[in-house]
Amino acid sequence: MDLPLDYPTLRLIWWGLLGVLLIGFALTDGFDLGVGALLPFVARTDVERRLAINTVGPTWEGNQVWFVLGGGAIFAAWPLVYAVSFSGFYLAMFLVLSALILRPVAFKYRSKRPDPRWRSAWDWALFVGGFVPALVFGVAVGNVLLGAPFRFDTDLRTTYEGTLLGLFTPFSLICGLLSVAMLVLHGAAWLGVKVERGPVHDRARRFGTIAALLSLVLFAAGGAYVAWGELGYQLTGVADMAGSSNPLRMTAEASSGAWLNNYATYPWLLIAPVLGFAGALLALVGLMGRGHPVALAGSSLSAVGIISTVGVSMFPFILPSSIDPASSLTVWNASSSHTTLFIMLVCTIVFLPIVLAYTAWVYRVLWGRTSTAALTTNPDLY
Amino acid sequence: MIDLAVVDLSRLQFALTALYHFLFVPLTLGLSFLLVIMESIYVMTRRPIWRTITRFWATLFGINFVLGVATGITMEFQFGMNWAYYSQYVGDIFGAPLAIEGLMAFFLEATFVGLMFFGWDKLSRVGHLFVTFMVALGTNLSALWILIANGWMQNPVGAAFNPDTMRMEVTDFMAVIFNPVAQAKFVHTVSAGYVIASAFVLGVSAFYLLRGRHRAFAKRSMTVAAAFGLASALSVVVLGDESGYALTDNQKMKLAAIEAMWRTEETPAALTAIGFPNLEARRTDYAVQIPWVLGLISTRSLDGQVEGILELVAVAEDRIESGVIAYDALEKVKADPVDAVNRGTFEAHRRDLGYGLLLKQYVADPRLATPEQIRLAAWSTVPNVPVMFWTFRIMAGVGFLMIALFATAFILSTLRKHETRWFLWVALLVMPLPWIAAELGWIVAEVGRQPWSVEGVLPTFLGASSLTAPQLWATIIGFTALYGALAVIEVGLILKTIKRGPFAEQQEFADRPAPGAPKPRPTGVQPAVA
After folding, report:
1. Cβ contact, residue pair B524, A377, below 8 Å
2. Domain ranges of chain B
3. pLDDT tens digits, residue range B276-285?
4. Do B493 and A75 lie within an 8 Å CB cutoff?
5. Model's pTM, two decimal places?
6. Contact B263, B311 (CB under 8 A)
7. ipTM score of the complex?
8. Shortest CB distance from A369 goes to which of B108, B466, B526?
9. Among the ranges given (A176-190, A242-256, B196-210, B264-278), the one the predictor scored with the smallest mean pLDDT
10. Dihedral-angle region of residue A331 (phi above 0 means left; psi in -120 to 50 means alpha; beta otherwise)
11. Sequence-ordered list of residues with C-beta below 8 angstroms from that of A151, at least 6 positions apart, any chain
């Protein structure tokens, strides 16, 4: 079949779409996770907690689809990445799934009984459902930057040499905490625009300010580690960008500081880390000056910048192997076939705008702050 | 070498999580359309009772829906976690329907479901009905794409093995979408969901009528469930997925195992209504047969042949021998990717590669297999006959029982004899049966697919990840504990909601405007202050 786009272009587009999906997840479900992680701290009484929960009550379900779609899209477009990462980070994935299974149930079931112990238990489930995924996603990204301990045999079957505890290194913990700070900031900024003015609103501002400062510090620390911490991989020899998706036909090596090479070649890419810092600063300014939409814009830009920084630094690597760099997964060797990438692109072009359109409509219908008054008169609220 | 303990544990975990997920999904599929019907009546008649009816069943829908969503997350990621080799071997085809499901269906249902619960005060009647309909459409489209993915595992059309990437790749995506097995499965499965939801509404309504509570509410709910349930019960049996069983060797084997038909019979074959499959003697003892019926329903003709297990095993043996040739050629292609002779040999035997791989459960290199191992591998293509035989019969029996149930309900509600006590007891007591049938249906389909992950392409035991047994035990125990606790909580909440009844909410929020009254002013929000 003759396709209007060549294989390297499609691979590049799908690398970009992988970023779009991750950013979509961070921007929408990100504030749900952040609100969950903040819940025990910004809201103390039952009414306060209901206020905070109902800011995301009607939309968390749709937002969560970014996560599920992320799984499906990686499966379809990057099957090797899907297979190697989810089985390689097996127990970490199980932790994330357990937390994310608890979360929807907690949202829905918390309000079904007035018993304070029942509600308090679900509040902690919401906290776990927000904090644990945020932390583990960051730790996972840290490990992707470090390289994961896997290799292929000639049938392309993967074997691993890692353990769950081995995932927690100083660098990956920096990444994990950065991820928590970034999403807590986003959640706090969301509460800033979505919850009525009062104690919850004030506490969200306070915690948001701390999270913004931590984001700046941790992002800088991560950057320093990438520059001087003996991280990085690079391809050796010429990559066949239109070649078969077979990781055995490529060579690569560990190379200290190589995650900065792309910025040396294309300095304009520095816009990604700059956006990461500038967004967090903007959020900080917004939170301190009560400009809440500004804070939300800042936290969003910061998330876009931080996630893009990871992708851009590693390009063309997606998942390097620490024990056998030649087994590393890259944009040029880990994708689906030319045909599948094209079909999936057509589906995305058709359906993603529709999804964005009705999502925007739903947010418009639900526009406005949640209020204490509504909690007593509206039986539909959580 | 593959660790078979890991394979068995991975299969156990997949079965547990899939069967659990499928407790909630069918109710979601059916109840969403029942809500559309009930709310449509409300929009057309504007009678407040129908608003109450819709909102009550929607509350139960919500309690159930959220567990379907939560356990569905596991399903989306478990392929990569536990079946990594499967995922990379067939992800080029299998991943696409899952991604499209997310994009086209899951986004739709999940985005609108929030508005369905929170939007009563914020939308017009028709606007809210539209939202409810989008939820129903989304859940059912979701089932379509999942069953297209599953249908491909049963009948892997439109794909071929690529020796350069060592995996299956798409050759014809339209064939994957319009796979007849997938289409049959879709109709069968969503109909089963409609039956489950109808039986649920019928059973709960019967409970209220037996207690003499909420009679106006219960009678109306019962009428809707009876009509929708009857149509669905007929659909699930008549449009059952037997028609797909003539298509491939594995599907033929599945049919032969369901019928415990050891040898090919003269056409049209008889249907064994009941009997005792005897594995050692390879015959069915005390069989009660109905002439012609099997041939007619499975081939839709008088002269179509239904093949027996022994004949199909002989076919498998030939394909295994051909598969060994394919495997040998593939190994040579791997060593020398440009050699045209070996590629030619591989092409000629490519469709049997999966059969060659079956030998890997006995010997690391299939080329060294003994004739005895080849015979064993050929017999391994027979799924567990007694399990298939009995699960199918119980499932089908429940199917016919459901037709009888809903036909009776339909007649009684048409005659306005809703409160026929013996029938109400029956409706209440048979409530779990369609769930059992649906779970057994999954077993028939997926145990019947064994030993394959993907029919003729990839044996199940090769698909597993390189994990360790302790890792598997950790997640199996973890999922079991988590799912078990959630099941107890869910059932508790459903029972509590049913006990409180459909009018409890109106008593609690008595200061609100009467249900159904127009609401000019949106409550619950204040204008946004930026």
Report:
1. yes
2. 7-247+382-508
3. 877 777 777 8
4. no
5. 0.92
6. yes
7. 0.93
8. B526
9. B264-278
10. alpha
11. A158, A159, A321, A323, A324, A327
